Amino acid sequence: MRSYKPLPLSEAYWFQEGPGVRKWQFTDSGIKLLNVGNIEKNGTLNLEKTDRHLSKEEVAQKYSHFLVDEGDLVIASSGISFDDDGLLRTRGAFVEKHQLPLCLNTSTIRFKAVEGISELSFLRFWLDSREFRSQITKLVTGSAQQNFGPSHIKAIKIKLPPIAEQKRIAEILDRTQSLISKRKEAIALLDTLTQSIFLEMFGDPVKNNKCWDGMGIENICELIVDCVNRTAPVVDYPTNFKMIRTSNVKNGKVNLEDVRYVTEETFQRWNRRATPSRNDVVLTREAPVGEAGIIDNDEFVFLGQRLMLYRVNPKYLTPQYLLYAFRSSYLQQQFTKHGSGSTVKHLSLPACRSFRVLVPPLPLQKEFAQRVEAVEKLKATHRASLSQLEELFASLQHRAFRGEL
Predict the structure, then answer these.
(1) pTM above the 0.85 mark?
(2) How many Cβ atoms from other residues are within 10 Å of residue 319's Cβ?
(3) What are 313-334's pLDDT values in tens digits?
């Protein structure tokens, strides 16, 4: 393992924090202001998220030295959060030519490499490393908000290998991260594919140009039940009985990786109306409204608050069709229409039992289910590959900044 002498980060890289621009200075046109919200987790700048500008005249008079350059590395120094490992993680991105002119703003910091000493691409990955994140977490611990500034950066130290080594490490990590991004894009495209298959086979459900009959959801489901009307007691250790929360229902799935647990006694006592099982469809009534997912395993699960469970009548529906019907614009419009609450929108129990669903022929629904299953198998393959790539990247990153790569 190679060891490099730590040196202050401020000696290895030049940096500059944005000025404290006030709201009354904002304009609708002129020079775009960089905000922390523009720096996304995927390492890109999205300048469409905010529309704050400074006038060209004011920038020329006061802020010209805060104009960023092509290739600068910009990071967010506020609005950051803790990861599962308890360490803070910031967000960073490189500025591209087409995004200029662009001016730094409050809570944004830009970096430049010091010629002959450092490489910006190395820093981009190093800021995601445990070496940096553990240092910055210690420095801001105890603050009311998780943010940092120049004084914190000056206290940070970095172990910097020679320039050639920095470039080699950054290239290895960049290639691996590129593969991860491509795998995520493939999974996202497959998500879009299933929605396209739905529209191809059943048409636009809002227009109903294929003239399918509509039926009340109570007439085509064997079971419709809501969650318990109070918070179930959970335990802080794993059991065989998992509780589904609204956060577990997303993108057509019921994800049971991040769950709370209940005891068998609670499960048996509170689950008397129905035990959720494979192929049941779950719908969120609140926070957010209208997310749907299908249970695709045989684990013991418990329905948490703000959820509804639908068990289809196989004479009329397949679970896969109902899931995508819930996610369609036709039923999403019904959710919006029936949603109530001035601050937090929610669906009432009568509303959850009164939706009308278009019912195509059952053989067509079964064909749709088969096509969805084929796509899901392909997605599972991609997810497994993504998981392996993410593990590889974490290992490479850990080794690289320990001098083992």
Answers:
(1) no
(2) 20
(3) 999 999 999 999 999 888 888 8
